[in-house]
Design goal:
It is built from two helices and twelve strands, in the order βαβββαββββββββ. The protein is of the alpha+beta class. The protein has one domain: Alpha-ketoglutarate-dependent dioxygenase AlkB-like (Jelly Rolls). It has a six-stranded antiparallel β-sheet with strand order 1-10-7-12-5-2, covered by helices on one side. It starts with 7 loop residues before the first strand and ends in a 6-residue tail after the last strand. The structure holds 2-oxoglutaric acid and fe (ii) ion. The site of fe (ii) ion has 3 residues, from loops. This is Alkylated DNA repair dioxygenase. InterPro entries: Alkb, AlkB-like, AlkB-like_sf, Oxoglu/Fe-dep_dioxygenase_dom. GO terms for molecular function: broad specificity oxidative DNA demethylase activity; ferrous iron binding; oxidative RNA demethylase activity.
């Protein structure tokens, strides 16, 4: 059996096919209002391979000039992010064990050749809330390590409907997506993978 780092929870098949389909519709609406943008790395300006957008009162963005950050506006349209869909707010209540709602839902779209390098989610202020992540569409190879770059990593395949929670001592574990397995799901008509990452950014109150 694959033993994950403490505080890292993988819930395979947590969302039913019907809920996944409803979520895809929700994401389509979010993307209509807040189009996918091309994130670029701080300083180098190198383009990431995923396309992003957000919903919630805050969204995670990155660009060459200002780096990683949260902001209330879409970086291209300049308008506020659309609200987080109810299904995701309910998911957060069900799995986060955190008594306040998430503020940000990052939407990552992976085409078959996209990936995400090993990183920590650490642009938030309140680390007592977990990161809750949903996979939709094609499978991916997810890698998770310790809270420092040293120490080994474990790889696991995430499938459509899986939920991963990084909480407690797992909150700052390094993680990334090594590859997408094309055509492994029929959920998205044009293939690819969507990842939805719910986060609390600020302290409540
Ligand atoms: O796509 C994933 O499963 C992980 C995404 C992620 O780690 C992030 O957006 O910070
Ligand atoms: Fe992350």
């Amino acid at each position: 059996m694959l033993v994950l780092p403490k505080g890292v929870r993988h819930m395979p098949g947590y969302l039913s096919r019907a809920v996944q389909e409803a979520l895809v519709e929700d994401v389509r609406q979010v993307v209509q209002e807040a189009p996918l943008f091309v994130p670029t790395m701080p300083r180098t300006g190198k383009e990431m391979t995923v396309r992003m957008t957000n919903c919630g009162s805050l969204g995670w963005v990155t660009d060459k000039e200002h780096g990683y950050r949260y902001q209330p506006m879409h970086p291209v349209t300049g308008t506020p992010w659309p609200p987080i869909p109810d299904v995701l707010l309910q998911l957060w209540r069900d799995v986060s064990a955190y008594p306040h709602p998430p503020e940000a839902c990052l939407v990552n779209f992976y085409s078959p050749d996209a990936k995400m390098g090993l990183h920590q989610d650490r642009d938030e202020i309140d680390f007592s809330a977990p990161v809750v992540s949903v996979s939709l569409g094609d499978d991916c190879l997810f890698r998770v390590g310790q809270s420092t770059r040293e120490g080994g990593t474990k790889s696991l395949r995430l499938k459509s409907g899986d939920v991963v929670v990084l909480g407690d001592e797992g909150r700052l574990c390094f993680h990334g997506v090594d590859r997408i397995y094309p055509s492994t799901s029929a959920l998205l008509k044009n293939g690819g993978r969507i990842n939805l990452t719910l986060r609390r950014v600020t302290y409540p109150g």
